[in-house]
Amino acid sequence: MARLIHIETDRQEALRAAVDALNDGLPIGLPTETVYGLAADATNPAAITRIYETKGRPRFNPLICHMADVAMAERHVVFDPLSRRLAERFWPGPLTLILPRRAESPIHALATAGLDTVGIRSPKGFAGELIRAFGRPLAAPSANTSGQISPTTAAHVAADLGAKISLILDGGAATVGVESTILKVEGEYVRLLRPGGLGAAEIEAFIGRPLVRPAAAGAAIEAPGMLASHYAPGAAVRLDAVSVGAGEALVRFGGVDVEGMERARIVLDLSPDGDLAEAAANLFDYMKKADATGAGMIAFTPIPETGLGEAINDRLRRAAAPRE
């Protein structure tokens, strides 16, 4: 079972143990402000292979590479002027940029799924501190079995992958609760490949133009989180519920009353006050709690598409998509 170190209790030991594991080519459970990541050396093909094997992740699905800061990123990718402005404005934070990989970058092709671009971001808090101490970028998808609910606590990671990895760092609950927003600048256009923890409206206000929204389902995979079925619990997922069947689990938003609530196996509210940031932070944890009841169906009431609601609805639609 994985060793668990609480960062607040022993930050220096957490750093030392993490750097040692990463130098040995081992993936670790790492807290970020978005979700917990399964982090390993992005320049080490054996380490990257262990990420894919631990998660059971398809190898055509690229990994985000996490950087300490813009200066580290510049050694690995080529910034266009707008992407650099976005990085300087929103890093560290929940924004991933898809950029051309420099020919001399040691980031391994396994991390990019063979693409000539790479998704990069600079995380807040301890993760950035660890990358700086390690001195190399970390490939870090979410620390869960591929396609299932993303983890927002160390306990989530331990329950899913604890028998497969050697170290989990506990930094408390993730404050954002959904993965990063992914952008790709293409000339005058900025494409939103995945809505996430940085709201589209904030980005649009900064760049002074609307984002081009995600491509239709079935488009080529350019970034993580683009698979049609993803973030899924064991139970089936039903969206825009206005009633609940006997034995279903109900996850509502904003304290809305739903017909048949008394028949639900469990009733959870992402945010009784209708706060989308609170809802995003609770989303994956509440999906796990609803799934743990053994209900065959989890019903979600409507979530507004504004602000972080766009990212929440993206995750819910992928969780509800048909599974192969």
From TrEMBL:
GO molecular function, one term: L-threonylcarbamoyladenylate synthase
Start and end residues of each YrdC-like domain: 12-198
Keyword annotations from UniProtKB, A to Z: ATP-binding, Cytoplasm, Nucleotide-binding, Nucleotidyltransferase, Transferase, tRNA processing
Annotated Pfam families: Sua5_C, Sua5_yciO_yrdC
Location within or outside the cell: Cytoplasm
GO BP, one annotated term: regulation of translational fidelity
Main location: cytoplasm
Enzyme class: transferase
Keyword Glycoprotein: no
Keyword check for Calcium: no
Reaction(s) catalysed by this chain's protein: L-threonine + hydrogencarbonate + ATP = L-threonylcarbamoyladenylate + diphosphate + H2O
Binding site for L-threonine: T34, H66, R121, A140, S142, S180
InterPro entries membership: DHBP_synth_RibB-like_a/b_dom, Sua5-like_dom, Sua5/YwlC_C, Sua5_C, T(6)A37_SUA5, TC-AMP_synthase_SUA5
Listed GO CC annotations: cytoplasm
Function: Required for the formation of a threonylcarbamoyl group on adenosine at position 37 (t(6)A37) in tRNAs that read codons beginning with adenine.
Family: Belongs to the SUA5 family.
PANTHER family, per the entry: SUA5 (PTHR17490), THREONYLCARBAMOYL-AMP SYNTHASE (PTHR17490:SF16)
Protein's UniProt name: Threonylcarbamoyl-AMP synthase
The species this protein was found in: Metarhizobium album
